[in-house]
Amino acid sequence: MNKRRAFWVILIAIAAAVMLTFVSCATEESALKEKYEQAGFDAQAFPFEKADVDKDLVDFAYHGIKNANSSNVEQVFVITFKSIDEAKTYFEKHVKDQDKPNMIRYGRAVVYGSKEAVDLY
Q1: Which residue did the predictor score with more confidence, 84 or 121?
Q2: Where are the domains of the chain?
């Protein structure tokens, strides 16, 4: 294989890898939203300041609420950080916060809220 052909093959492979990365992230976010919508949760604006989250450290954030007009309100907060270290730091800092119940961490994601909603993740 000559150098010119090798260059184009490598360039196309890199472009394809970048596109797949973007598509997989978008798909994951869409699937998450759909899963919570099917369970009866309505998407809300994510309260970055109240959650003590720096927007610049986050790839994706989701806030869902279920039964908003009843006494049995359920909420879920999903934060996908840009790195595992940022997720670990946030989790360690907030895992015992009373206003962030049932907190769990999966890789770069930190999830908290009602037990049912966290289990749904």
Answers
A1: 84
A2: 3-120
Strands 109-113 and 104-106: antiparallel
The pTM score is 0.75
Neighbours of 62 (CB within 10 A): 20
Return the amino acid letter for 39: A
Buried-state track 23-43, b at ≥16 Cβ within 10 A, e below 16: eeeeeebeebbeebeeeebee
Q: What are phi and psi of 76, to 5 degrees?
A: -140, 140
pLDDT of the residue at 1:
65
d(CA 33, CA 47): 17
- The widest CA-to-CA distance across the chain, in whole angstroms, is 70
Retrieve residue 119's tokens. 């289990």
